[in-house]
């Protein structure tokens, strides 16, 4: 597969990842709002247990799929990923979803800066501008065009989730040189489960309907993480960061469809701005290959 085709495939994977992450967030919001429903820690545990179970089934069907190489980074990914999920769900319980989403979705910006230090990746000016435009679209969608932020525990939790999500993104990018996406996701679940368990000790909800929705949420998370990890094998962190800003846009549209949440003029404008930023970064954000040096003139016989 050529580099251009690999990048095109990776962008499609990130599009699917954004839709899956959006569905996961909407279903988690639905479950946490239900009286006597799941707590943040319980949703995290369900997500990790279902993800690990599906991964083990896949490994049984395809034994070569489980191929850990860099175990130190794999366990680091599990730990940081577990912290991300718990912090974000805890933030959603304390502050409005839009406010939590605005803070959390700063993680692509943080990841771009971290990747410059970790890998020496230098995004183009166009790509940085595209990231700023796409992030501006997220602010319009989740914040209604304004930033109503305060300094409280909920905001601190959401910002902390963004930092750890950026660390996870950079870690995944580093691991894709040695480990496949399925193995990375399995260690994410196994390593994150001990982090989430202390937050899931309260009474668990009953009812087959709630558990069925929780299972769908976990499967959406499984698809989102797997697609994202696979995409990092072909894209730099900075370009993936631009595409990942489609996640809150997908979440906004799915919340309107599944939860009957209202669509606003600012939100629809944000979707247009966000998509324009992604398109701009995709078309103009790539470094042009260096021009080959001109061939020396042919030697003149007898000179």
In short:
The chain is built from 12 helices and no strands. With 303 residues, the chain is mainly alpha-helical.
Task: Report what the structure shows.
The chain has 303 residues and is an all-alpha fold. It has one domain. Helix content is 73%, strand content 0%. The protein has 12 helices and no strands. The radius of gyration is 21 Å and the shape is globular.
Instruction: Tell me the number of structural domains.
Output: 1
CA radius of gyration is 21 Å
Estimate percent helicity.
Answer: over 70%
Beta-strand level of the residues, as a percent range? under 5%
What does the largest sheet look like?
Answer: none
Distance between the termini: 46 Å
Count the strands? 0
* Topology as a string of helices (H) and strands (E): HHHHHHHHHHHH
Query: Could you state the oligomeric state of the chains shown?
Result: single chain
Categorize the overall geometry. globular
Stretches with pLDDT under 50, minimum 5 residues: 289-295, 297-303
- The helix/strand class is mainly alpha
Our count of helices gives 12
């Amino acid at each position: 597969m050529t580099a251009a085709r690999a990048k095109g495939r990776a962008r499609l994977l990130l599009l699917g990842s954004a839709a899956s992450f959006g569905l996961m967030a909407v279903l988690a919001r639905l479950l946490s709002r239900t009286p006597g429903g799941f707590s943040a820690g319980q949703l995290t545990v369900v997500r990790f247990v279902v993800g690990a179970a599906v991964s083990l089934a896949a490994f049984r069907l395809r034994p070569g799929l489980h191929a850990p190489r860099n175990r130190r980074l794999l366990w680091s990914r599990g730990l940081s990923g577990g912290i991300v999920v718990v912090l974000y769900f805890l933030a959603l319980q304390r502050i409005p979803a839009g406010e939590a989403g605005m803070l959390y979705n700063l993680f692509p910006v943080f990841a771009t800066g971290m990747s410059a230090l970790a890998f020496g990746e230098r995004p183009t000016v166009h790509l940085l501008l595209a990231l700023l435009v796409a992030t501006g679209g997220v602010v319009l969608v989740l914040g209604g065009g304004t930033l109503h932020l305060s300094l409280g525990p909920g905001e601190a939790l959401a910002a902390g989730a963004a930092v750890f999500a950026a660390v996870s993104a950079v870690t995944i990018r580093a691991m894709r040189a040695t480990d496949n996406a399925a193995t990375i996701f399995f260690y994410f679940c196994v390593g994150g489960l001990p982090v989430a368990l202390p937050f899931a000790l309260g009474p668990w909800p009953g009812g087959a309907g709630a558990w069925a929705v929780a299972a769908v949420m976990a499967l959406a998370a499984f698809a989102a993480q797997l697609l994202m990890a696979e995409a990092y094998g072909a894209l730099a962190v900075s370009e993936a960061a631009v595409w990942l800003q489609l996640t809150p846009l997908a979440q906004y549209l799915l919340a309107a469809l599944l939860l009957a949440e209202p669509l606003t003029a600012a939100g629809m404008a944000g979707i247009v701005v966000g998509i324009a930023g992604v398109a701009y970064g995709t078309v103009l954000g790539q470094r042009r290959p260096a021009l080959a040096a001109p061939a020396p003139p042919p030697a003149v016989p007898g000179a």
